[in-house]
Amino acid sequence: MAQRRHPSSARAILLGLAITAATVGAFASPLPLFAPLSPPRVGTGRSRNAAAAALASSSSSSGNDVVVISPPGGIGEIASVEAARLGGSVRWFVVSAPATAPGSSAANDFKLTAETLDAISRAGGSMELAGADAASLLSPPGEEDDGRKNTALAAIASWLGTGSSSVGAVICTYDGAVEERARADRTRSAEEIAEGIGTRGDDVELIRDGIRVAAREIVDAGRVTGGKKRIALLAAGEEIDNGTEEDGGDNKGGGGFLSGLFGGNEVEIPGSLDEALGGATTVIRYGELFGAAESSPESSPFMGGPRRDPTVREMYTQRSVRIDPTVAGGDATAKSNRLALGEAASRLGLGRVDTPAEKMDVSLSSFAGTDAPTEEDWNAQFARIAEMTSGSNAASSAYRLYSAEFSGVPSTKRLAEWIATKWAPAILRSYDIAGTRVGARPVYAVRTDDDTVEIVWQELVNFESVTSGRMIIEIDEGGLVASRGGGDSGRGFGAVSNVPLPGEDILVRRLADAASQAVEKGLAMKPQAANKKEEPAKVVTNIVSTPPPVVAKAAAPAEAAGPGPRSAGARRSAERSRGGRRRKPSSGGGES
């Protein structure tokens, strides 16, 4: 009878296939990797035994052990696959919407190509998949449970294994929750959708709560070491100050609702991913997302299929990235490629790049460029963040907003003139800037020197325009640097503002785009990787041989040819006039 108490608990944990370096090559393309084992029964222990068997087939070091918690698809899938391609041992835990029928999880549609499987095999990586629907993770513990954890949470602990094994990194993201709700609604009738909204609640919120509960369970197991191994990927402006702006400081999130919904002891839900991960979290923020995971039909490079004039998806044309410290919660209007976010998170989790501090909040933006960032590019981006936030440079870099590196600038005057007369006026006339009606806003740009441009902020004080701040753009042979400057000291604006100026984040994002445009226009040269050393030119000794003189040989007379100069190989000295009648030679060689 206890089996019927929570029907969804029969789907508490769906264990997937462990993909190891020894067995990857046996799969064909495309191969569904989320192949559930026989449905586990609550209280029988079969799910826990299956989890232990799956873990036993994967032999990897704890340093490369990465756990990813996310909805199906999206950034979570990209980060999992990329970490496995880099040689990591990945465990992807998928939190799906409450299912209405067995086997309806979106994780069953997860597929990889043979090329990706071969890359994972060559790198020595592995993947394990498991999942649970949100309702199972948030249900209260039952009579047969240990009184503190429900069946799904207890199965997560078994899935992670026992003993001294540790988790090298935990990566969490909410991306994909909206798509998962839409997929689940397609499997439901109109009556089930209406009934679910009233009794179950919003699927997106349930998935987000389930991700935080699962993350807390993994961290509480005591196997996550190092603050910079706890990574959260969040949208701009999301969960600022530990989520207090959204829930009023209630750390239990939707616990009260779940208590009334399921009955019994409520499940305590962390208020944010930072709280769920135990603090000291590295946060990577993104703006408007684009791009798709490999298992999605939208991952094809061509929109609408191959054509004579194909349209390439922007996920392949917007590969250049820019990472900056988050200002005012991040810029929601920036565009971020899911491929770049997954690559950044996987490299942080595997320790391929070093972070400047245990707790860090950065924003990632994507720009035009067909070349994916290399290992050197990622290290350069995070090294720049470390330099800007280091103790020795913190005071001097406190108001530095943006910096771009070039391998060379042919003329700093031409680049400064283009920024002041072409780029800046177009940005200042945009709706995002010109639409500001209250307070200060950037008004105009002026070139103050051959290598310096200033963008001036003004506001009305007693019906008079007063300069309240500046953005100073300095250009040299190696790049450009933008920093925040003070305003009119005579009117009380001489000190540099400690908070971002209105519209400053928009200009910073557009300035990153200007750096790419400068390279395309020939005003600057694209920076080269620092550790790519050019091989010295090999000295090749050219051996020049004098060919033998060409001796012109007379053409041999054609055999069986009649007498005459043409038979002897001679050519006519002058062009024969047309219309003349050729004289017929006599048989004796003379004229009659």
What does this structure look like?
This protein has about 600 residues and is α/β, with parallel strands linked by helices. The protein has 18 helices and 18 strands. The chain has a 9-stranded mixed sheet, with helices on both faces. Strands 14-18-17-16-15 form a 5-stranded antiparallel sheet. The longest helix is centred in the middle third of the chain and has 18 residues, at about 205-220. Mean pLDDT is about 75; it is low at about 1-60, about 240-265 and about 390-400.
Mean pLDDT over the full residue set:
74
CA-atom Rg in angstroms: 34 Å
Largest sheet: 9 strands, mixed
Stretches with pLDDT under 50, minimum 5 residues: 1-62, 242-265, 391-398
How far apart the termini lie comes to: 134 Å
Number of strands: 18
Oligomer: single chain
Discrete helix count: 18
Q: Helix/strand/pairing class, anyone?
A: alpha/beta
Strand residues, percent? 15-25%
Strand order of the largest sheet: 1-6-4-3-7-8-9-13-11
Helix content: 25-40%
Shape label:
globular
Structure characteristics:
nine-stranded mixed beta sheet, alpha/beta, 18 strands
